[in-house]
């Protein structure tokens, strides 16, 4: 089965919209064209020369990876470093590269951290540090008798979701005025006369990522030629988008048991951790795949233990003796991300061929 690259990307965007990636990131289609079709994808955490070689060998015309191979601007492509060589090889062999990185880290449902939490069996997962400034309120003025249609269109497009509640909205009734002038083709009223109509002011919450889609859907059901609406940016936290995830262990666990539990559940050979009284019980756990030191203060306020990677020596002190801070390795913390790719593809394109890369791209070795 062949699929257009833009359709594949749309399936990933539904889970992790690219607008939710961090500013330093470069998630998205890195090599290839949106209108090309592909017939087999290689799923990998990183995209390296060896990964492209494996893709070619396996007949894959696309690599779907977590880490973007290109982060900074490329000024030349002469093979001077592994980034240039990887991109050159991909172009030469017509292998597309698509990366879904921090946008997949930042979602509560179906993201990198949800997968780690699933492996640990954490319950009641919540975002550890929710993002602010990515929610809008749409206010729209609709004549009576049309509000249900407009509401339905907005809900269908994904508006009005708050935590475990869907289809949240608020309305008040009032009177609107307008005077159609030359060139107008009004739904009601007479040209040159001020018209008064019973209207509903309807308000609904939308995330920035889908604001245009929702607005478009609402407009398509609104009877007026010129629709009065407002988009109001909110300072509220988006509880389903942000960094890290925390939840509850099914049963509290003594520290040493918990460390063994991590090694077993996440299949890590060893881990680094901060000293904590062995009699302490671990009830709540936060996770952040990849480099998560920036969340140590938040984790200290929220949970008993925090699992992440790339923790520097002095950052271990930031645990202040109250947090069991565990560094399990960057690759190790994110290796299950490939399962997410497979699930997203399976859900939308069950007949689209895809395989896990067999090459281990971890640049860190242990002995
Ligand atoms: Zn990473």
Structure description:
This protein is an alpha/beta fold and 367 residues long. It contains 12 helices and 17 strands. Helix 2 runs parallel beside helix 3. It is globular. The mean pLDDT is 95. The site of zinc ion has 4 residues, from helix 11. The site of zinc ion (ZN) has 4 residues, from helix 11.
Topology:
Layout: E1 3-4, H1 5-15, E2 28-31, E3 37-38, E4 40-44, H2 49-57, E5 62-65, H3 82-92, E6 96-99, H4 102-105, H5 112-120, E7 123-132, E8 135-143, H6 147-156, E9 170-178, E10 195-207, H7 211-221, E11 229-234, E12 237-254, H8 255-265, E13 272-273, E14 281-291, H9 296-302, E15 305-309, H10 313-317, E16 324-327, H11 330-334, H12 337-348, E17 353-356
Helix pairs in contact: 1-12, 2-3, 6-7
Bound molecules: zinc ion.
Shape: globular
Return residue spans where pLDDT drops below 50 for at least 5 consecutive residues.
none
What strand order characterises the main sheet? 7-12-14-15-16-13
The distinct ligands, each listed once, are:
zinc ion
Q: Give the N-terminus to C-terminus distance in angstroms.
A: 43 Å
Order of helices and strands: EHEEEHEHEHHEEHEEHEEHEEHEHEHHE
